[in-house]
Write a structure and sequence with these properties.
Blueprint: E1 5-10, E2 22-27, E3 35-45, H1 47-54, E4 72-80, E5 92-96, E6 106-110, E7 114-116, H2 123-127, H3 129-143, E8 156-159, H4 165-176, E9 180-185, H5 190-195, E10 200-203, H6 207-211, E11 220-225, H7 232-235, E12 239-247, H8 252-263, E13 269-272, H9 279-290, E14 298-303, H10 307-316, E15 322-326
Parallel strand pairs: 8-9, 8-11, 9-10, 11-12, 12-13, 14-15
Antiparallel strand pairs: 1-2, 3-4, 3-6, 3-15, 4-5, 5-7
Length: 327
Amino acid sequence: MEGKLMRAVQYDRYGGGAAALKNVVVPIPTPCKGEVLLKLEATALNPIDWKIQKGMLRPFLPTKFPHVPATDVAGEVVKVGAEVINFKLGDKVIAALTGGGGLAEYAVAKTDLTIHRPPQVSAVEGASFPVAGLTAHGALTQSVGLKLDGTGARKNILITAASGGVGQFAVQLAKLGNAHVTATCGSRNMDLVRSLGADEVLDYETLEGAALRSPSGKKYDAVIHCASPVPWSVFEPNLSTDGKVVDLSPGASAMWTFVVKKLTLSKKQLVMFINSPKAENLQFLVELVKQGKLKTVIDSTFSLSGAGAAWTKSIDGHATGKIIVEP
């Protein structure tokens, strides 16, 4: 592949949204030690991708410009770097890329964040998991302490934006953990969220939904908050005595609440969760798909040349499930 070129989508400055994305032709990258080169079959977009473009992780990401965004991919191994023993040419895999590179025909992935993709899992399904699936998994197992085999104490859990990328997985995983799930979404997605297993579904545009009140009067042991910022005053009356809110996109107000609750030793806590991908957890999710216990809702698919439209749809924030680009 050395010296050959590929199509990619990149931006060369902060800001600009979809209009700043450029379709380019660049050299195919070369895998280093412990890396594999993938011919990409599917790439999933996540809100963090356009938030990085906006400069929300400046100066850490991007590490340099121009930058090819997106990290969640599925593809085929076409070249292996030195000391790679677990993968060979032709292997179908799922990977979490480090820093980006997914909006392209080829990308380099580290083997410690790459797993084999079984034939029962499509490339589109596989690309959906690294950020969204692992965030849902980590928030529930690490922050809430839910046992996904259903052996732990039953918890009442609220999941906001339950028809979105993270929310769809959080509902299904929480039900595997024997939780009672209340979920919020728009009216058009209420039947979908029920089909994922939610026990109660609230339309966030109604007064009851905006107040996050359980229709059965339950108090929440935990909230997996996947939506835009909500004041602590809305969460607090709905929490059990030692309930917690796991905020997946905390703003300044949430960070202040986090500090105050810690300093005052409040039993009700706000927890900020940051996804730290691990191959074994990704493998766990893929096994659930193989067993028919977890499914992926796909909102839409786009070609690489149509990545700008996919980017705009992600920024809009009303996708039902995952947005996929197929190079």
